[in-house]
Amino acid sequence: MPEKVTIADVARHAGVSRQTVSNVLNTPEVVREETRRRVLDAVEELGYRVNQAARQMRTGRSRLIATRIEPDRDGINGSVLDRFLHGLTESAARAGYRVLLYTADDDTAEIATFADLLGAYEPDAFVLTGTHHGDIRTSWLLDRGMPFVTFGRPWGVPDGTPHAWVDVDGAAGTAAATRHLLDAGHRRIGFLGWPAGSGVGDDRREGWARTLRAAGVDPAGLDRATSDGVDDGEAAARELLESDDPATALVCVSDSLALGALHTVRSPGAAAPAEHRAGPPVAVIGFDDTPVAKAVGITSLSQPLAEAAASCVTLLTRLLDGDSRPSGSSGDPHPHVLLQPSLVVRRSG
């Protein structure tokens, strides 16, 4: 049986003290990046495995961050959170944490899972995704003083920001997409979105509507709300493209709806009659820059998911270390980060 690798072996291999190795594994924020990297390389090369039970007794921390894994849904937009989870796992590892995944069908089931995980694994913190109006998950964690950060804003909270969060500015993204289409010569720019009440969907719709109004275009009658599926996008797009005064371009709240819209645009006889479509070809822009959008050539808005994940870990480690000072703001006691999406132009727009 191979001899067990010890913390002393790692220290000798990295050329540092045993205390430095312990700091890298337990409080990595106190160690310089160059030294931390050298120690982690030695850990990986030697195959050192931390005794989690002993470390938890010593530090009072499990070094676990729990987060939910989303259902696959249509296989298109579910990939967004897959990329976020990949980035979260990498960022957590660099900070000396591991990600604990769980599933839940709804908010109530997720809260029950919180209680189970806290009893069985004692995670140090949670990362919540899919925030929405009336989110009872955040209230449950706040009431118990449990550290957490959300990937998504606290929608519909009247008294300001009640917790740490990271989000991507959806309104800025759809505004950029709409300006791109206006610059290309489009004026009748439609919007395919979700039913009102979705924080994310309403935010993305507002960027489109505000940009049209600023250009002197009335957005009334140019949007359709529907479920988030390819068939739904196809049907909603057909309504806008075959109306008496058809849209010549579409901004979509997701790549699923954009793919459906593109099916309508490319179907012979399905889009608006030729006499209504003078000027630029019908353009379609999605949101999330999924692998499907790349494969079929849909112009889409890309979210900086690796940066979002890294920001979540940074805010969490700051909270766990007792530092809740906001980053780059004064007067707001809760740290938050709002990131900007980027428009990736392809054949569809």
TrEMBL record:
Keywords for the protein's UniProt record, in alphabetical order: DNA-binding, Transcription, Transcription regulation
Residue ranges, annotated region (Disordered): 323-349
GO MF annotation list: DNA binding
SUPFAM superfamilies found in the cross-reference section: lambda repressor-like DNA-binding domains, Periplasmic binding protein-like I
UniProt keyword annotation of Transmembrane helix present: no
Pfam families per UniProt: LacI, Peripla_BP_3
Keyword Transcription regulation among UniProt keywords: yes
Domain HTH lacI-type positions: 5-59
UniProt xrefs under InterPro entries: HTH_LacI, LacI/GalR-like_sensor, Lambda_DNA-bd_dom_sf, Peripla_BP_I
Top-level division of the source organism's lineage: Bacteria
Any coiled-coil regions, as ranges: none
Protein name: LacI family DNA-binding transcriptional regulator
